[in-house]
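Exam review. A common question shows you a sequence with its structure tokens and asks you to describe the fold in words. Practice with the pair below. Do the first one on your own.
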Amino acid sequence: MALSWSPLLAHPPRETQVPGQTSFAIGRAASMSEPLGSHTSQSNTASCEKSSSDLPLPLNAPRTVLHPHWPTERIGLQNRNLGQAPAVDAAEPKATAMRHRNAIHETVDSYCTSREMVKKSGSWFSRSESVTTVVNLQKSQHGPSYYINVGFWFQEIDEQQFPPPNKCHIVSRLSSWLPISEERELVDLLNLETPIHDDPRAEALTGLLDRHLSPVLAEARTADWFLSPDGEAIRSRSGVKAAAQQLLAGQT
């Protein structure tokens, strides 16, 4: 006699064994290829006539059985869409980024904090009435090395509290300001593949920032400074937007 499973059964279907036949499940065992929501009963005969590749799993094999009246928690599903990707915690990328911070990040952040700069969107800002200086740590696309970008924004041209580093009126890299010997030292300090322990790396990097960036942060408070010998040295090694060129030309 053909057996079928009714939703009125108090318990989920269980395996049974027919003499001379491979074991099969009374009712319906849903496979991953079957669409959810289909609960058409199948006869024992149809189940037994399947090929060996289509026969039900052995008794001890894990299987998922779906029923419209069973709570999803009971069958170990989070939802009825088996193809839906699991939810991702929105805080995970941020947590991962925090775990990947290193001695270079920590040293630059500590230096800028000690200079009372304000951090916004990953960059550090030092603002006067006329000039905003932006310090940005940029990771290389070709390995675990970094660059320190420095930008200058003239409030006379356009007032912005936190201008994007790459949009500044004067854009430069700290390494371009240094003598060749110190430029090579900075490149090594900003490369995590250089075999230097964290403490010596932080100490040497802080020393370079003190010698070459601190004077600029203290002096570059007006557009006139960029016409001085020190300011001209920075400007000659930087990219200067047309609006800044016009502004500085009017200062002469």
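Now try the second one, then compare your answer with the model answer below.
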Amino acid sequence: MMISGKNVGRKEHASPGGILEGLILPFSIIALWFFVSHAQLVSRSIFPYPEDVVFAFRQEAVSGVFWENLTISIGRVLKGFAIGASTGFVIGTLLGMSKIMDRLFTPVFNAVRQVPLPAWAPLLVLISIGETSRVLFIAIGACYPVVLNTCEGIRSVRTEYYEVGRVFRFNRFQRFFKIVLPSSFPSVLTGLRLSLSISWMAVVAAEIFMTSNGGIGDMMWSSRDTSRMDLVILCVITIAVVGFVMNRTMKKLELVFSFWRITLKQSRKAEA
């Protein structure tokens, strides 16, 4: 018994009711913020009104400062993500396909990934002062989830698929591109989604803890030094919104490229 892709796709899309439920908490927080600020329970200089933040956004957006800083941060994220994700994919593939590489490098990798990401900042500053150190900082954070998910995806490839490859006499490259990569791709996509989220968080840390010329993190820290709490809150909201959009976009891509796997799982459940 097969289940049509149409039915599966319907289950994967959020219902209007689910979307409305997801908006309850954000709107409740905004309402509480409006009440607390206007009740003057906290000083306006420390806890600005929502309209102060809206005015600050309008002012910074019109001047172009906001968009310039946002563009700088996104550019750093894309560079670090590209380097970290590609490096992580190669390492994860080697660890997943070679038992020798797994025995040699997995203990070292597991030890290195226990080092908190901010701990790399002083070392990277010594190696390179400037944009390179910030991009490498992001790349380190982006690398780990791709390594783990790629390795796990390759190890979870079913033995029957390899047997089919032997029947068709696939060489090593054919086996990788026709069996291993398609089978492990959903897991790799999950790693890429996590990697992009970590990259976005890492860029803010890099711009705050490492000397930075521009970026949302730098804008937030500079605003804090000048007691512009409206801009600080604007930066926090921007970080949250952009991170949410990135995560949702990657989830959509993950769903599109993994659609065949969802259909297969549903079919097996129906047959059982």
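Model answer, second protein: The chain has twelve helices and no strands. The chain has a mean pLDDT of 85. Full marks require stating both points clearly.
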